[in-house]
From TrEMBL:
InterPro entries: Isoprenoid_synthase_dom_sf (IPR008949), Terpene_cyclase-like_1_C (IPR034741), Terpene_cyclase_plant_C1 (IPR044814), Terpene_synth_N (IPR001906), Terpene_synth_N_sf (IPR036965), Terpene_synthase-like (IPR050148), Terpene_synthase_metal-bd (IPR005630), Terpenoid_cyclase/PrenylTrfase (IPR008930)
Superkingdom in the source lineage: Eukaryota
Needed co-factor(s): Mg(2+)
Protein name as annotated: Monoterpene synthase
Keywords from the named record: Magnesium, Metal-binding
GO annotation, biological process: diterpenoid biosynthetic process
Amino acid sequence: MALACSPLITSCCNFGRDVIPFKSTKNTTLKPIIKSFPQTTKVAVSQEPVVRRSGDYPPCIWDYHFFQSLRTDYTGEGYNAQASELKEDVKLIFKKVVDPLDQLELIDHIQRLGFGYHFAGETKRTLEKMYNDDPTKNNKGEKNLHATALKFRLLREHGFHVSSEIFIDFTENEKFIESLGEDVKGILSLYEASYFSIEGESLMEEAHSFTSKILKECIKSIDDSDLGMLVSHALELPQQWRVPRLDARWYMDIYERSKYMIPEVLKFAKFDFNIVQGLNQDELKDVSRWWKGTDLGQKLEFIRDRLPTSFLWAVGISCNHQHGYFRRQITKVIQFITLLDDVYDVYGTLDELELFTSVVERWDINAMTELPHYMKLCFLSLNNLVSEIAYDVLNEQKVYVLPQLRKAIDVMLWIDLFKHYLVEARWYYSGYKPTFEEFLSNGLVTITGPVVVIYSYILTCNPIRKEATDYIESLPDIVRLASEIFRLADDFGTSSDELKRGDIPKSIQCYMKDAGVSEEVARTQMIDLMRKKWKQMMKCVFSGDMPLDWSAVEIILNMVRMSHCTYNSGADGYGVEDGLSKQRMFTLFTEPIPLLQELLLPKIREPSCLITNKSA
C-alpha cells in the first residue's frame, strides 16, 4: 500500500518505541538554554531551573468510567424499524401538505426538532419550488408578516438568494409600519429573518432595529407563555447563531404543547433523538478510550483535559448520524488544539516555543531529539494523528490523502498555526500590546478555524476534491470571516479569565485601548461587529463562486454557531465544564427522552396532516 511507504508514517511507528515518558513536577522543570544555531545544528542544553506559568485549569469533571458505563435501551432492530416507519409517515406528510405556510411551518419544526438532515431532499424540493415561483411577488398583498419572514429565512438558510424586497409591502417611506408591532409572532419571525441579511441590505438592518426594540419592550407582557419563551430565547441568541441539535430537546417541550403539534413528527423526533444519543454514546466511549490510551492528560498535567467538551463541539458541528467517524476524529483534533494552545499560551518558555516551532516547521523527525520531553510527546502525538487520519481516508475512499494533508500542514494548518501562536508568545514576553487589527489578523488563525474547517471537509466529504481543499487552504473570505467571528465570540467568553492568568490582551481589551472606551461599550461593539461579519459571510455564501457543496458550507457555519453557543453568556463554556456545558452533556448524551404511552401506540395508518398554522 502506498501509505506504508510514507516516511511520515514509518518514522512515527519507529518513534512509538523510543518515547521517554514525561511527568511534570508541579510548575518547576529544567529549562533548556537555546543558543543561536543553524537549523541543522544540535542544541546546546544546560540545566537551569525555571518557574513556569500556570493556567490553574480545573480538572476534567467527567469520569472515564462514567462514560464507559453509558447504556441506552433505544438500540436494536426493533427501535430502528419503528423509526423507519415513522420517517415514512413524515415523508407522507410532506407530500400531503400543500398550503405554503403549512409547508414552511413543517420544515421549520423539523429543523428545530433536530432531525432536518433526514429530510434534506424534501426540504430542498419544497423550497426550490417556492423560490422558482418568484418570492418577491408571491406575497404581494398578503400582509402576513410571519409567513413572509419565515419564507425569507428558510430560503436563505438553505442557500436560495431571495430578495429582501419581499418585505416592501410591510413598509412606508422605507420604514416598517408601526402597527405591525401588535403581531408579536410576525415580529419575532422578522427578527429571526434579519439575521440572514447580507452586507448592504438597508431594509434588513431597519428590520433588525425595528423588531429588536419591539421584542425587548413587550417581552414581559406576552400572554402566551410559549411565545414568550421563544421571544426570550431569540433575544438571547437568534436561530442563525444557534446549533439545532443543542436546542432540540428544549424545543420538543414547546412543540409538544403546541395546538399545531403533529403526533408523527413529535414521535419521530423523540425516537431519533434517543437513537442518535445511543450512537453518540458509542462515539464518546471510543474517543474516551483513545484519549485514556494516549495518557497525555496524565503526562501533561498543565493542559486542559477537555475531551468530553471537544466531543460536544464535534456534535455541534455535525449531528448527522452518518458522520460518526467525523465526530470521533475531529474530537481528537480539537483536544490536540487545546493541548498545543496550552503549551504556547501557558507552559512553554519562549526559547522552547521558538525551538518547537522550528522543529515542526521542518517536520523533521530526527530533530525531535532537540526538544524537551513534554514537547516530544506533543510532536509525536500530532504526527501520529495526522498519519492516522490519512490512513483512515485511504482505507475508506481509496484516496491517498497524506500529500494533501502534508501540503495543508506546510501551507496553513499546523505550522502556520504554531507560527501565529509564537507571535502571541513573543507579544507576551516582550510586553507588546497589539492593536485591535493586529490582534484579529493573528487571532483568526490562533482560534484554529482554518484547521477545523479543512479537517472537517476531509473527514465528511466523499470524494475529496482537490479543488475544494486548495480553496479552503487559500483562506478564502468565508473561512477568514468565520474564523474572525469565532475569535471574537471566544474572547467574549474567555478574555476576563485569561487576563487574570496574565495573558496578552484579547480583542475586547485591544479595542478598549484603541477606541478609548469602557469594557461594556467594547463588548457591545464586538456584538455589532460579529453581526457585520455574519452579513459579509452570508454574501460569500450567495456569491456562487465557491467550489464547496452545501454540506461543507453548513459545517463552516456550524463551527461559528458553536462558538456563539459556547461563549455567548460571557463565560468560558469550553474551559469551564460546569454550568451550561455540563447540562448539555447530560441532555445530549445521558438522558433519553421518555416516550409517553400514547406515543407508543400502533402506527397511525393515515398520518395526521390537517394542520392549519395560519398566523394566529
